[in-house]
Amino acid sequence: MEMKIPPQHQDVQPGLESELDPQPKVIRYTYVGSGKLQGKVALITGGDSGIGRAVAVHFAREGADVAIAYTPREEGDAQRTRQLVEQEGQQCLLLPGDLRDASYCERLPGDTVRRFGKLNILVNNAGLQLAHERFEDITDEDLVNTFEINIYSFFRVTRASLNYLHEGDCIINTTSVTAYQGRADLPEYSATKGAIMSFTRALSSNLAEKKIRVNGVAPGPIWTPLNPASVDAEQVAQFGKDVPMKRPGQPSEVAPAYVYLASADASYVTGQTLHPNGGTIINA
């Protein structure tokens, strides 16, 4: 999994996977599906690229149809994700829009059900990451946009999804190692990821009686478009070298955690968070 990342930067959030060098690894050729999600339907926010794309493809290899939410700017990436899902023999519904828009969030689950007839798995995954070396440079606009996308959308999409989720279904939230460690240049991002961690724990208790499981995944440095769209080119070239494994992870190394949490293998797991982070010890 070793790779060399040359200096690179993308000027607009969210970044585009099509412009990354090298291209992230979506799924290992040795990964063999075994029908763990056969007949299931999943909705994935931020499903066009990065971890979201890898989750969509892994879910498809396990037998699930997938709907993905993404911004219209990422149409090319979304179309590529659809191709990859369809190559696995499954269907992929594209749902472009703005997760800062409450009405869009509330429509997503219903649109998924109208296409596929049901919804079994919700993956709240979309995220905005803005780096600020000086705390006082954070604008109200930065703050509002980060919270709207990173945590408000989780509440809104989840609330609407509960009209369709039933016993045995599940919700998986993408948090981050920064929820536990913080990061000096990502104060608002770290704060939202901490909120997602607490949201996951609280929601799991809230939905336990309904037998709907709620868990999280807290990735470390994973090679996705989020990174070159957030920091300068030289920082990107050093990405992931500060973890014990001395390298960034690939989306293909994270997505199987979502498969586990979405499947019957995790039937006795709720309120928990998995940590694919390259060896960083999290005592929380």
Automatic annotation (TrEMBL):
Give the InterPro entries listed for this entry: NAD(P)-bd_dom_sf (IPR036291), Sc_DH/Rdtase_CS (IPR020904), SDR_fam (IPR002347)
Q: Where is this region: Disordered?
A: 1-20
Which superkingdom is the protein from? Answer: Bacteria
Q: Does the keyword Oxidoreductase apply?
A: yes
Provide an example Pfam family for this protein. Answer: adh_short_C2
Q: Which UniProt keywords apply?
A: Oxidoreductase
One term of GO molecular function: oxidoreductase activity, acting on CH-OH group of donors
What's the family? Belongs to the short-chain dehydrogenases/reductases (SDR) family.
Record protein name field: NAD(P)-dependent dehydrogenase (Short-subunit alcohol dehydrogenase family)
